[in-house]
Amino acid sequence: MMRPADRALLLLVAGGCAFGLCFVDAARLRAAAGADEAERTRLVAQLRLTDLALFTEARYTRHPSQADLHSAFQDHPLALEHFPTGSLISPPAGLLKVGAGDTAAAEGSAAK
Amino acid sequence: MKLWLAKQRYLIDFTLVSLARRKTRNLGLLFVYAVLVFMLASVTLYTHALRQEAARVLAASPEVIVQRMVAGRHDLIPPGYMEKIGRIRGVQKMEGRLWGYYYDAVTKANYTFMVPAENPPAAGEIVVGPALERSRGLAKNNGISFRSYSGKLHTFIVADVLPQASELVSADLVLMSEQNFRAFFDYPAGHYTDIALSVANPQEVRNVAIKLAAALPDARPILKDEVLRTYASIFDWREGIVLALLSAAILAFGILAWEKASGLSAEEKREIGILKAIGWETGDVIKMKFWEGLLISLTAFLVGFIAAYVHVFHFAASLFEPVLKGWAVLYPRFQLTPHIDGLQVATLFFFTVVPYAAAVLVPIWKAAITDPDAVMRG
Q1: What is the ipTM of this complex?
Q2: Residue from B7, B18, B61, B339 whose CB has the most chain A CBs within 10 Å, to mutate
Q3: Hey, what's the torsion of the CAs at B29, B30, B35, B38, to 10 degrees?
Q4: If you measure CA to CA, which chain A residue comes closest to B236?
Q5: What tens digit of pLDDT does each residue of B35-60 get?
Q6: Do A50 and B338 touch (CB under 8 A)?
Q7: CB contact at 8 A, A20 and B340
Q8: Which parts of the sequence belong to the ABC3 transporter permease C-terminal domain (chain B) (predicted)?
């Protein structure tokens, strides 16, 4: 009869193999997804798209990179965010940085 | 070496039998531990794969989008605006984009109406995204009517459905001709939603944006670099409600581990006392408990990670769907391409396996260096 240590070791080796297989499977799926990805890239280039269609509930979640500077506060400046996605995603990168020659920051300060 | 291995096997044997004596408690701990690793690994794998996907796909998006702002809001580009931009050195090509949102009261969903710059559909025809096809039960050559904001009903024929493979970027799209778009939204002639620019020298993009902002103070240039960085940080954990929910789980597990680390049960103390009384050395007791911590944490890590991989890349992260979907009616069905960041996996391993394996050792060391008689008496 197999000793408990051998059984545990066997299970851990099996787990380790399954862990390694995740990486093999990832490589396989990546190779298989090449055509689909090319299709997405082609469509983005053809339609001049700027955003993923992940959150279609509001304009600033559908196109977060194109959102108005204060669109989350569209009702009034202190309005609380009312779409759940607003809690999930961060503001557009252009609004977060501060620095000389920064167009978005300049735009932001101009809007204040 | 052989002797050392044999000793470790005996220690593991003893550890497993000892764990089996408190089966329910240890299986419960293993389950909670594996679920925690599963949640953390799922979020890590999902967000990393999504960031990678966005970076690759959106690399083909326009170099600069110029919006016009009026009273802090995005406004239409009036005629004459493009001519002013055309005078800026470095601008290679510009195209007015026509797009907008439409709320469909039938499905209570928002669609993105758009005019493709290349190969637009014929007048009276539309091309729809796959999610819209599903939600409205559409097929090629079906007719569909939308009531415009002016109250008029516009009927279109579905000329085609965008490929399923592109759903991540096209789920809610409705492509139509410029003539139909302008008629549907009552768009004034010569006006555009925004302008897509391409710049001759990619090194000059930022300079062109600065010149644009100077020449047209009401313009808001959005660089591709900013779009990519928005998506690089889109699921930033700081803002994530997922992390907020997970932090409760992490805290609960922390309390569990702390409870285990800060004190031993009377039964465990008695066991250590007996082991020491029958001749086990302090080092052996610590090694035994080290194996216990390692076996539990390693098993939990492997089970949690493998389950997370299958969940994210074979079941489309279906457990996250209610969170990601929010209030959106249209949600794209997509299969993320797996991109596993080795460093993230190593970090996850380090922060899940090592602290637990170490946490169980401290109280054991305290108990193991105490006199067996005192330990047994509690």
Answers
A1: 0.80
A2: B61
A3: 140
A4: A90
A5: 989 988 998 898 889 889 999 999 99
A6: no
A7: no
A8: 265-370
Residue B312 exposed, middle or buried by CB count within 10 Å (0-12, 13-18, 19+)? buried
CA distance B231 to chain A (A): 8
Residue of B nearest to A77 (CA): B72
Interface check for B262 against chain A (CB to CB < 8 A): the answer is no
pTM for the full model? 0.82
| Inter-chain residue contact B238 with A90, CB threshold 8 Å | yes
pLDDT at A26 over 70: yes
Closest residue to B13, CB basis, from A4, A92, A103: A4
- pLDDT band at residue B375 under the 50/70/90 scheme: low
**CA distance readout (Å), B231 to B49, B51, B87, B149, B367:** 12, 6, 31, 32, 51
Inter-chain touch A83–B329, beta carbons under 8 Å: no
B72: left (phi over 0), alpha (psi -120 to 50) or beta: left
User: Does B134 lie at the interface with A, CB-CB under 8 angstroms?
Assistant: no
CATH architecture assigned to B77-192: Beta Barrel (2.40)
Q: Where in chain B is the domain with CATH 2.40.40?
A: 77-192
Across B65-82, b (16+ Cβ under 10 Å) vs e yields bbbbbeeeebbbbeeebb
Q: How far apart are CA B267 and CA B21, in angstroms?
A: 11
**Are B241 and A37 in contact (CB < 8 Å)?**
no
